[in-house]
Amino acid sequence: MSLKKIACIAALSTITSISYAGSAHALGFTYEAGAYRQATQTSEGVFSDNVNSAGYTTIDFNSGTIPGNDLVKYSFSKGSYSTTAYSGQTGIYSDVWAPSGAHAEVNKSDYLAVFSDSDTIIEAQGNNTFSYFGFDAGALSVGNTLKFFNGTTLIRELTYDILNGAATVEASQHGGQKNGFFQFFSEGANDTFNKIVISQTEGGGFESDNHTFRVEAVPEPSVSLGLLAVGGLFLYKRKNQKLQSANKSA
């Protein structure tokens, strides 16, 4: 096991599993205090324990450019974002409201703040989907809202009450408001998602950092039809074998 992986595991605290019965879909999530990308770096907030794992991509907002890559696209309902601290507008900042570390350490890195003036939309690039999304949430406050979609279909919506009820890390720099790392994952074919919308519906902001994704390629239609054909042939052979066996027994 690598030293980085050991560092991540060592930083984990008790994980709280949350069940959700308000939807026919089964998108699940867990909460934890969070892990560090490197054991010696505790001033960048917390990360997914998958941050150093192959197959996952992380956006930490520290590049100074529009967030995103060839797998994940970020957009803003107003078309742009602010970098002027304390402007009260959705933007990328570095200030005291950044999501804290696992033990409430001050986060000195850039983070995303969403205010009621606009939404932040995150989408899987191309015809892909997400099977996992994790993010560091900070200074949770009334109005924090998170929505997951598959196309135009709403898969799940989480509000402040749900998030705050699970979180445990209270940061003094946030006046005791809670912080922590939330992980969302598909549990079946009915809850894959390709769009996430981060919103703030009341005063205050929705602060988050260190977004981690697992992106899954969706098979081309021809491939899907091929798989269906193979499956149909398999079922036909099984049925034919049963009929032959029944005839021999007779």
Uncertain segments are 2-24, 223-230
> Any idea how many domains?
2
How many individual helices? 3
Q: Whole-Å distance between the termini? A: 60 Å
Percent in strands? 25-35%
Average pLDDT over all residues: 84
Remind me, CATH topology of the largest domain? Jelly Rolls
Known CATH architecture of the largest domain: Sandwich
| Helix-strand topology string | HEEEEEEEEEEHEEEEH
CATH top level of the largest domain? Mainly Beta
Into which percent range does the helicity of residues fall?
10-25%
Which structural class is indicated by helix and strand composition?
A: alpha+beta
Draw up the topology in text.
Blueprint: H1 3-10, E1 16-18, E2 28-32, E3 56-59, E4 72-76, E5 91-93, E6 111-114, E7 120-124, E8 129-138, E9 144-150, E10 153-159, H2 160-166, E11 169-170, E12 178-185, E13 195-200, E14 206-216, H3 221-249
Antiparallel strand pairs: 1-2, 2-12, 3-14, 4-7, 5-6, 6-14, 7-13, 8-12, 8-14, 9-10, 9-13, 11-12
Key structural traits:
globular; 5-stranded antiparallel beta sheet; Jelly Rolls; disordered N terminus; 9-stranded antiparallel beta sheet; 3 helices; alpha+beta; 250 residues
